[in-house]
């Protein structure tokens, strides 16, 4: 039985509100919540109730549109001030996934280029819908592009959650896996649990079981021995920001890339063009460091001494020479070889993509 498409964010401008699946409660509790203020939305982003680079782009876009719809201003200038300050509040929620800033900026520019409050509200809603529609198309295109690298029988390792829950729908890394499964390929997935917030254990397994795709849950530390035993044919993960010399993705990705290289296993990134930040390099990227208690506890269960010092970066950078290919909606690219092609594509594309 084909399941309904999984869409973690729905924008209802007529109310107005942003409806979302509260991902911190999955897999045991499926709860839909509604953000009717930018602060409620920002809180959901900060706690990873809404998460995943393309989904953050959609959330940022909808957040600016929500701000425009609810702003109470006497003058157009006051209105612009209110929307810009809400956009800044959304920008400050998480620093690494570049899609968040594209989504915010795309809708904010639609507001700033309007000539009245009413026109700005309409333009903001249209722009936010364009971001969501673009990401939906992009994820399905990434899935299709990725088919060329998936053998007819493939044992795929993935890390964190780059699925429908991280996008408008379908997913990037899981989008390739879904497309391959739909194309009749014999796919089995090893999902790394992804400490400390367990996006792999909680979200990726839940998505793949829901779609009837073969999945085995492993701890992050089990990946290396599976590669050594030749149990993995390729690795596919998502990305939060791709710069000229590195790919930033969930912490632990670099470890898998080094392991894959050591065992001559192809290592692919699946990401939309809007995840590329080709003007920057690894040393310029701010890597989000999160609350130490995320490592000392999980849902109240103590996993480390209360006073133990903790380092909790949410992402790591993988040098591009460890990446076999980057699967995008426009094709499969390699860095640094294709950087100019990527720049040209980004200059020419509709800025409605996240
Ligand atoms: C489709 S991009 C998903 C990407 O985002 C995740 O990070 P987080 O769960 O902290 O938002 C992870 O890096 C995934 O690969």
Automatic annotation (TrEMBL):
Its EC number is 5.3.1.23. Keywords: Amino-acid biosynthesis, Isomerase, Methionine biosynthesis. It comes from Methanospirillum stamsii. This is Putative methylthioribose-1-phosphate isomerase. Substrate binds at residues 51-53, 94, 199, 249-250. HAMAP family: Salvage_MtnA. The gene is mtnA. The keyword Hydrolase does not apply. Catalyzes the interconversion of methylthioribose-1-phosphate (MTR-1-P) into methylthioribulose-1-phosphate (MTRu-1-P). NCBIfam families: eIF-2B_rel, PRK05720.1, salvage_mtnA. The active site is at 240 (proton donor).
């Amino acid at each position: 039985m084909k399941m309904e498409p999984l869409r973690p964010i729905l924008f209802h401008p007529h109310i107005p509100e942003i409806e979302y699946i509260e991902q911190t409660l999955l897999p045991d509790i499926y709860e839909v919540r509604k953000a009717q203020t930018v602060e409620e939305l920002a809180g959901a982003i900060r706690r990873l109730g809404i998460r995943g680079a393309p989904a953050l782009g959609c959330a940022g876009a909808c957040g600016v549109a929500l701000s425009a719809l609810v702003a109470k201003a006497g003058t157009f200038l006051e209105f612009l001030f209110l929307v810009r300050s809400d956009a800044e509040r959304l920008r400050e929620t998480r620093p690494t996934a570049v899609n968040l800033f594209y989504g915010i900026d795309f809708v904010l520019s639609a507001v700033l280029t309007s000539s009245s409050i009413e026109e700005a509200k309409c333009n903001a809603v249209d722009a936010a819908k364009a971001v969501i529609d673009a990401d939906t198309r992009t994820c399905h295109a990434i899935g299709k592009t990725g088919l060329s690298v998936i053998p007819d029988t493939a044992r795929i390792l993935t890390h964190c959650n780059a699925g429908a829950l991280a996008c408008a729908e379908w997913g990037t890394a899981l989008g390739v896996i879904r497309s391959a499964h739909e194309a009749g390929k014999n796919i089995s997935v090893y999902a790394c649990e992804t400490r400390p917030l367990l996006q792999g254990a909680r979200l990726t397994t839940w998505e793949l079981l829901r779609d009837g795709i073969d999945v085995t849950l492993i701890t992050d530390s089990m990946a290396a021995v599976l590669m050594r035993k030749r149990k993995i044919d390729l690795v596919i993960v998502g990305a939060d920001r791709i710069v000229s010399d590195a790919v930033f993705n969930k912490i632990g990705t670099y470890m898998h890339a080094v392991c894959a290289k050591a065992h001559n296993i192809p290592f692919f990134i699946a990401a939309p063009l809007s995840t590329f930040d080709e003007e920057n390099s690894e040393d310029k990227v701010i890597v989000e460091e999160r609350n130490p208690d995320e490592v000392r506890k999980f849902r109240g269960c103590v996993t480390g001494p209360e006073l133990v010092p903790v380092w909790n970066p949410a992402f790591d950078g993988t040098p591009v020479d460890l990446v076999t290919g980057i699967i995008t909606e426009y094709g499969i690219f390699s860095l640094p070889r294709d950087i100019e092609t990527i720049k040209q594509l980004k200059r020419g594309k509709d800025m409605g993509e996240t």
